[in-house]
Amino acid sequence: MKHLILICFALGLSMTGFAQNNTKLSSVDFVAVLNNNHAETLYYYENNWKALREAALKNGYIASYQLLEIEPSEATPYTFILITTYANGMQYENRETHFEALIKASGGLKLLNAKQPKDFRQVVHGQDPVKNH
Question: What is the domain extent for residue 79?
Fold first, then answer.
């Protein structure tokens, strides 16, 4: 009887892990443009962030991504919303390793007007992970 209980417990744990592993997870960042550097910020995200996500999508490292732009307001003091969605927990857990390899292969940061990211953008809020239902 003990063995049956242990087997049921082990199966339950493995099924729980499987269900969690198939849950899509996202990383969401809300980004403000600093000092009217909209062109630099957009260039940075299109030529670095977006390019890396396109490569990650092609390599099966992510499920999807979105680079959204809104008009900032007092209630929403940011211009860009960056969303990276992972197909499952394994993709999410391996995200740092995968992006490090893609960054290394990309040849480095592409910047407009030689301005550094800290000079033209600020992540106002980041939420990681976000469950997708």
Answer: 24-125
Please state the length of the chain.
133
Confidence of residue 12 (pLDDT cuts 50, 70, 90): very low
Is position 13 within any domain?
no
Domain count, the chain: 1
* Each residue's pLDDT tens digit, 62-105: 999 999 999 999 999 999 999 999 999 999 999 999 999 999 99
Q: Over the range 99-113, which residues count as b (16 or more CB within 10 Å of their CB) and which as e?
A: beebeeeeeeeebee
When computed from its CA atoms, the radius of gyration of the chain, rounded to whole angstroms, is 19
According to the model, what pLDDT value does residue 3 have?
A: 43
Residue identified by tokens 């239902």 is: 133
Residue 40 is part of a domain; what is its CATH number?
Answer: 3.30.70
Is there a domain that residue 67 lies in?
yes
What 3-state DSSP class applies to 70? coil
